[in-house]
Amino acid sequence: MPPPPAKEKPIILLENTRVEGDWATLDWLSSQNENAQFESSHKHRLRRSAIEVFSAPEAFVSAVVVGLTMGIISVTSDASTHFVASIRNGICLNHFWLRKDLCCAGLAEDCEGYYTWGEFFAGRGNRGVYYTEFFFYVFFSTVISTVASFVCKCYSPYGSGGGIIEVKTIVSGHHAKRYLGGWTVMTKIFACCLSTGSGIQVGKEGPFVHIGACIGGLWSNLFPSYRSEGKKRELICTGSAGGVAVAFGAPIGGVIFALEELSSTYNFKVIMASLICGMVGVLFQGKMDIWQTGRIVQFSVNYRHAWHFFELPLFGALGIFCGLLGSVFIKFNLAIQRFRRPRVKNWRVTEVCILGLVSALFNFFTPYSRGPLLDLLSDLFQDCVPNSTLEICQGGQLAIMAKLILCAFVKLPLWAYAVGCFLPSGVLVPSLTIGGLFGRAFGMFLSALQQTYSDSFLFTECVDQYFCVAPGLYAIVGASAMLTGVTRMTICLAVIMFELTGNVDYLVPVIIGILFAKWTCDAIGVEGAYEIAIEENKLPFLDPKKEFNHDSIAEDVYKGKEFMVLTGKNCTVAGINELLAKKAVHGFPVLSNLEDKVLLGYVTARGMAQALQKEHTTRLGGVDNDTVLRFSKITPADPLAPEEVNLSHLVDSSMLHVEPSCPVSRLLYLFKSVGSRHIMVSQSSHFEGFISKKDLLAFMRDVEHEEHMEEKELIALRAAQKKSAKKKRRGAHRHHV
Predict the structure, then answer these.
(1) For the whole model, what pTM was predicted?
(2) Do 489 and 578 share a domain, yes or no?
């Protein structure tokens, strides 16, 4: 006799409890349990099964696949970016995809195959060449930047921005819907090629971190051991490290970047996977040789002489200046972001169009600015040898210094405004370029000073050396110090600069510049660009270096909040649906009853939904909204309840507990070290409340904000008091006279 048909519409809201919105918190403890269960079930399979054969080298294979993918994307992106940048100036008639230097390779002077747009339309030697070049340069730059922003708007808004702060938040244990999806990565790649080639002061390195994270997240779906959320983040972190590696040609720098900026814990597997990923990507780049250098290093430098000890204080002084300049940029950009947010929300593409137009106008008339930023950065690092064809080596030293400083001051405000616009934008290469411009100018000034006063005691180490100071070295130091001033990167930046230049001899000056820039920024008290962006966007990122030095306790965090709880017995599906209709939550604390409030544990809404679905398909009569649920293990089943479902096995009774008097500093330590999603607060086993990671972050932000507001109000009060005292003194002086 067949069983009676199951009841209709058993569960309504419980089926949708998996979706909590963006930036939902991952429970690392639950993820570790999933990994342990997967490995345990894997061990009991046959040794020669296909799954085991492919799972054994899974970490190595996944790193190689992600690295190879990033190498292909990098080579394609670099070629596309150079084509987009060169098309603004002219075209190679025989091979339209080649930029000018490749089109005219081997030709010392005349190049018949390459035409600027002025020469193409007006003819070579015609008066209208200059004006035609100006029109097409501005036209193409504006259109390209507008298309980049429009593509982001139409296909994936997540494709805009840099992406580093979001990737940091995801790796730290949070979800973001579609942020690492296929449409996002395709949009990011295409729009990044357009934005970096349009002439707007943005870089590709930040977007490449996001692209690498997307590639790692997408490939993780094909490897069984990476399907849990915790393991998936290992491959996401690996892909991000590979993105840095291929962007700078620095595989070791990518590994250290992942450790210093992304990962909150030391994981040897992630380190090895990141190294393999970066090496594969960079080796593929070197094989394709997109830079036409014959070597992997992007900016190979080899100066005619080494640095001298008398230059060490000068490197430090340059680091201090660039640290100050980086702090100024952060403040300037923060003011622009706060001004922009409420005003251009519905005009983001128009804003980018205007920015592209303005940037093109300044780039056309500003020295050294018509080409891509990476080409300018490469020239800044080079030494001016006799008969050099570099533009920055043509002319007198005073004129070149003036042009370098002018170029830096023009690019600085354009860069400050571009960061945060609705298109892919990174701060790394613009930081390096502007710091390199100031550093090169400073180095040329010192070189001229040494040549003029070569007999001075300051230059005793330069005996028999007419060219004693290398301006290119100061460009490297200035670039490194500027990037430290903006992002607070230190160790990974030193390694990246070493791998960029391919010369360990200049590592000491770079480290000195970085350290002095870091100390200067710390003394000023301005946080890095990433930390400020996280605070401004209110992302739930818990910095491993975060400290909280206030006398707050756990009770202050949840004071005044109401909690949705379940009791150990007499709960119904309809009652839980009613709670979920009010607010989508991850789960509920389970209490013995509402009078005693003895804490039994915690149950997730997703676990309940899956268990009830299973019960509905296997239970005679199914499950409906009137079904009674039991969560208590010690409470006997009610014989009068005809449809009771025992879900006590879902209750997690091993959660962390603290008392209401627990200091917030200790709570912070627990969240950082254990990785729990939330912590229960109880007094003698009686429930008082619970605190999530987001609750703690919001509380600390509010306390710190109030503290800063109090300091500002105190300063304003003191200023008003001083002003009032001055008026009284002036009045007394007049009365006396």
Answers:
(1) 0.86
(2) no
Residue 667 and residue 699: Cα distance in Å, rounded? 12
Considering the domain boundaries, does residue 453 fall inside one?
Answer: yes
Q: In what order do the strands lie in the sheet with 587-591?
A: 566-567, 587-591, 599-604
- H or E segment at 308? none
Angle at 539 between CA 534 and CA 544, to 5 degrees: 70
The residue segments making up the domain with residue 344 are 309-537
* Cβ contact 272:518 at 8 Å: no
Going by the DSSP 8-state scheme, the letter that residue 261 receives in this structure is I
Supply the CATH number for residue 251's domain.
Answer: 1.10.3080.10
Give residue-wise pLDDT tens across range 68-101: 999 999 999 988 998 999 899 888 887 777 777 7
CATH code for position 625:
3.10.580.20
Structure tokens at 397: 């030293």
Number of folded domains that form the chain: 3
What does each C-alpha distance from 720 to 91, 354, 635, 733 come to in angstroms?
64, 42, 67, 20
Give me the half-sphere count of Cα atoms (radius 13 Å) on the Cβ side of residue 605. 26
378 with 341, same domain?
Answer: yes
Domain closes at, from 695, 710, 732 = 695
E-strand stretches of 335-435: none
Q: Which two tokens stand for residue 672?
A: 């950082």
Indicate the helix (H) or strand (E) that contains 638.
Answer: none
User: What is the torsional sign of CA 348, 349, 351, 355?
Assistant: positive
Output DSSP code: residue 173: T
Strand partners, 279: none
Q: How far is CA 697 from CA 265, 432, 541, in A?
A: 19, 33, 8
pLDDT in tens, 397-439: 899 999 999 999 999 999 999 998 999 988 999 999 999 999 9
Whether residues 44 and 178 share a domain: the answer is: yes
The reply to whether 731 falls in a domain is: no
Q: Is residue 707 part of a domain?
A: no
